[in-house]
Each structure stands twice: as structure tokens, then as C-alpha cells.
Amino acid sequence: MWRDKYCAEIKEDDIGKEIRLCGWVFRRRDHGGLIFIDLRDRTGIIQVVFSPEISEEMHKKAHSLRSEYVIAVKGTLKRRPEGTENPEIITGNIELWVKEFEILSTSKPLPFQLDEKTEVSEILRLKYRYLDLRREEMQRNFQLRHRITMAVRNFLDSKGFIEIETPMLTKSTPEGARDFLVPSRLNPGTFYALPQSPQLFKQILMISGFDRYFQIVRCFRDEDLRADRQPEFTQIDLEMSFVKPDHIIEIVEEMLFKCFKEVLGISIEIPFKRLTYEEAFNKYGSDKPDLRFGLEIQDISEVVKNSHFKVFVDIIERGGVVKAICGKGLASLSRGEIDKLVALAQSFGAKGLAWIKVKNGFESPIVKFFSEGILREISERVGVEEGDMILFVADTNSIACEVLGKLRLEIAERVAIKNEGFYFAWIVDFPLFEWDQDEKRFVSMHHPFTSPKDDDLEKLLNMPEEAFKDPYSNVKDLKAKAYDIVLNGYEIGGGSIRIHNAEIQEQIFKILGISEQEIKKRFGFFVEALKYGTPPHGGIALGLDRLVMIMTGADSLRDVIAFPKTQKAFCPLSEAPTEVDLKQLKDLHIKLDI
Questions:
Q1: H/E run at residue 46
Q2: Are 47 and 37 in contact (CB under 8 A)?
Q3: pTM, rounded to two decimals
């Protein structure tokens, strides 16, 4: 055997024992008579000492050691001399005095140091990912990810779920992000698609009688990237038969409670807070609100409609609203800084941004249009204090909420008012459909297999066809049996009760503007399966990568995915995607036109 234990497994009880260890040379210090090596493996670091009194040969050989050499050592464990202990590491009271060692592998000079405090560009880190992954922070992230995954698997197994794999090469059913397509050599001119999710297959498993399914599964979406997105990602996928939304919500809450308790030693509070989609949007301007701080959006239309500020009055008379939030601590902003804030609001979609400073009274060019009573009522509703600023947006409800929701996040970042901890919420009662202005049709808010709420079922089935193309029709009022779970401002999961009735599913397709021919071509196998005794069922998918990112405190998904892509979906390590040999394209009957 190369080693007896991992570095961090060595305890003071082992003092006096002869022990074998393996790892990387993290640091080397030559103190003349003695040479000290910090030996690192995935568990931690232990100090290794080379002394000429123990072995002249080994001491001489140790002079050749450099950073990231891989070595195997054998020696006697001793207590460190008093005053030389290192309280920052778990093995800080002990050290190994070497009798024998072997250099197993050498290393070129590193392109960057592996010290946590070293600033390194992300592209360089991704190019040399095998080095980046050796860093303590990254090792910790992936050990925690493993523990989360195991906690999920063990919990779901204890609740009677069966893990079943679904295909990676499947049929393209575009309804959302773009698919990654894979050409078929054996069937020229045809393509597989990599799954955006196992949606249809997990529903078919319910039809097949596997009433509790789960899978920790890779999914693929060809979409523009940002810090919390990757073209390939992992989700915790589960589906259950004979359930209502509350059953699924309770299972997920219990599963997350177990994860946080086992992995972080934290008891999160369950049940989680629940907000309707409408409530979340009106209060926070988002369907994934960050609840670590307040600054809720307030509708002050009724307060200002009788003011003398014509801009507000005219918008209210045209059916718009005036909404406001507290700009915490922003009264100290200069006029130039306020102009930048106004420009930011305009970049979010606002026509403008009105403001009033609360600074020894009220200060703003628009103060003269409001009575003292109106100003005090606005202040009370918005919750401002001395040193704050009131920010107003007057527009349609959707634009006002969306703009102030983004400004709310901007303010929280500027003044650092977010509470520590994990703030969960369920968002429920989503619209079943939303209007796509570009395509001039309704599209599914979640996906086409989401069940309408029971109260809306009759309205759905009796909806006239002319309503399908009218953005102001009752189609927009239909609600879904859908639910998203939000954590610290991130959507970490979403699900719904599914449609188990072929007639309802076909009506949904009609509202979406999908013809019978398209239905048969894209979803025919699934619609046919619905006709063979389908149980009521529902499920949810949670983003494992996002969950790990939040639990580790990482800034990006790229810090919790072993081999991620850049924002241009490029891998600096392998340099994928790359061109391929023309023979490969010929085998696939593909010609490039670029």
C-alpha cells in the first residue's frame, strides 16, 4: 500500500507510530539543518520534516523537491515543539519525521499558485482546471456536492423512490430553449436531441406504474449563458403518482431539511413561506424574490392620484400605477450619481425614475407638487428613515414592478443589507400561459404538460378558438398547478401537477397554436400513452448545481461544476467545441455551409 491514512486523518493518538503518507508538495521551507514540507491531499495538510540526523540520504534528496511534486513518505509521527504549533490546520500539533520517501512524479513550474489568496483570471483557471481543482476551496466544494448528492439519494430511497435512467439520445420537441442536436449515422438526415429535461419520459414512467421515480440527471440547453447557467447541468428529478401539490412540496421540504442538517449542520425552518406569483411580482418585482432583506415595492397610486404632479396623475388616469421603494442609505448620493441611477432604471425599461431624498426633511425637484401630508404618508408606506431616498416608477404595473424589483437588488448590493442564512419560499398559482409578443401567440409559462387548476378546467375546455390569438382574452387568467422553489433570490427548482387526460392535453396544444399534424409529429407517442390508463401525477426538478453553489457560498456555477464552459459555451481545457474531420461529416451525410 502507498499510504496508511489520509493527511487529515492523522491524530495525536498516532504519535510514536510509523506512518506512510502520499500527496503533493504544497510548500517547501529550507531552514538549513531541517527541510519542512507541507504535504497535501484531498483531506488537508500535514507538516513533514526531513532531518539529516534521521537520514542523510533522504535529507539531501529533499533539496530537489518543488511545488506540486507527488511524493510518498514513511516516517514517525511526533508532537510539534511548543510554540511551533499551527492552529489553522487540523494537524497543526503534529508532524511526520521522514525515514524514507520517494518522488512519484515531478511538476513543471505552475502557471499560477494554488494559494487561496492568489488572484487568478477565470480563463486561466479553466484552462488548467486540473490545477484549479487542487485548491482547498474547490476540493471542499466538490466534497460538499458529493455529500448533498448522497443525502438526496438516501432520503429518496427511504421514501420508496426508485432511481431510473432515461435516454440521453431522444427526440427533439422544441418548446423553450434550443436543443443540442446529434446527427444519426445509421439514419441519414435524422437527428437525436440531447434532453432539456426527462419530462416526457418521467411522465411515461408514471403511466408505466413506477409511482415514485427519481434521477440525478444531466440536462442540456443551447441558450445564452450567465453566472448561474451552463449548457449542461445536473438536476434532481422526481415524479410521483396519486399526489397533489402539497404532497410534493412536503417531500421536497423534508429532503432539503435533511440535506442542510447532514451536510452543513443547519436546521432550516420548515414549512417554507408561500407566495402567489402575483404577490411575489407585486412585492418584489420577481418570481424568484430574494427574501434576505425587505425593501418591498409599495403601490402608492391612491396616495398620489390627488397630488399636483401631472406625470403621476396622467399615468394613473390612463390605467397605470405609481409604485415606490425605499432607497436605503441613498440620500448621500450626488446629483451625478442619481443621474446614473436614473439611467440604470431606464436600461431596465423605465421611462424615468423620480426620487425624493429624506434628509432633514424632503429634498427633490418634485417635492413642491406634494402636500406635507402626502409626503408623510408615502414615507410611512415605503418605510424610509433619515438618510434614505424614495424611488418612484410610474408606468404599467408589470414595468413598474420589474424595474423596481431590479433596483431593489441593486440597492441591497450597494448598502450590503442582506441577512446571513438561507431564505426559502414557494411561489404558487402561476399563470398557465403567457403572451409571446414576437410570435403573437400564447406560450406555456412552465411547459405544455402542466395541469390547469381545478377551478379553471371548465373554462379551459370551453375556451373559444378566437381567444387563442387575443392577448387580452381570458386565456391569460387561467392558473396552473405549478410551483417554484426559491432560495436567496435564485430559482432552485420548479414543478407542477401534470395533465393525465388526453382531451385536456390536446386543448392545451391548440391554445399554444400547435396543429394536429405537429402534435403527432412532436408528441404523438406521449399523447397516445395518455390514452392507456394514466394516473394523476406530478413532480419537480431541482437544480443541483445552483443548490450546491448557494450552500458553498460560491460566486458562480463554474465553481461547483468540475469541467464547466465559459459564457460562450467554450471549454478552455479541452478547447471544445472544435472542428471535426471531413470524413466524420461525410459519414453523417453532413455538408457545412459557413
A1: strand 44-50
A2: yes
A3: 0.92
